[in-house]
């Protein structure tokens, strides 16, 4: 069987991906990025509130994350800046994420 043209394969992929996203939305299934954002926020907020060596631990975490990003090709200084901006943003310990209104039914739970 002959391979489909690239344009046709790409168009079919768009349709498949839309179905996958819609199914995830209906199931209220978080994405990998949703989990990663929540995990990083929990780590930063948890460290700041519970440890006397929080800055040292955050620095070590930053160094390890930046090292991984550098292996992917990201700029070290830019990666450090983004990490530190997140630490600063999360410093007030307030829940920083916008509600996912498409996931919250009228009678469903609200964010913390």
TrEMBL record:
This is Uncharacterized protein. It comes from Shinella oryzae. Residues 1-31 are annotated as: Disordered. The lineage of its organism: Bacteria, Pseudomonadati, Pseudomonadota, Alphaproteobacteria, Hyphomicrobiales. Residues 19-31 have a biased composition (Basic and acidic residues).
């Amino acid at each position: 069987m002959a391979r489909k043209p690239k344009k046709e394969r790409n168009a079919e992929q768009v349709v498949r991906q839309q179905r996958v996203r819609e199914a995830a939305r209906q199931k209220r299934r978080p994405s990998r990025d949703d989990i990663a954002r929540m995990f990083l926020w929990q780590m930063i907020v948890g460290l700041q509130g519970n440890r006397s060596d929080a800055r040292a631990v955050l620095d070590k975490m930053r160094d390890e994350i930046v090292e991984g990003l550098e292996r992917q090709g990201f700029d070290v200084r830019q990666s450090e800046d983004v990490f530190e901006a997140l630490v600063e943003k999360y410093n007030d310990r307030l829940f920083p994420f916008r509600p996912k209104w498409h996931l919250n039914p009228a009678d469903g739970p609200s964010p913390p």
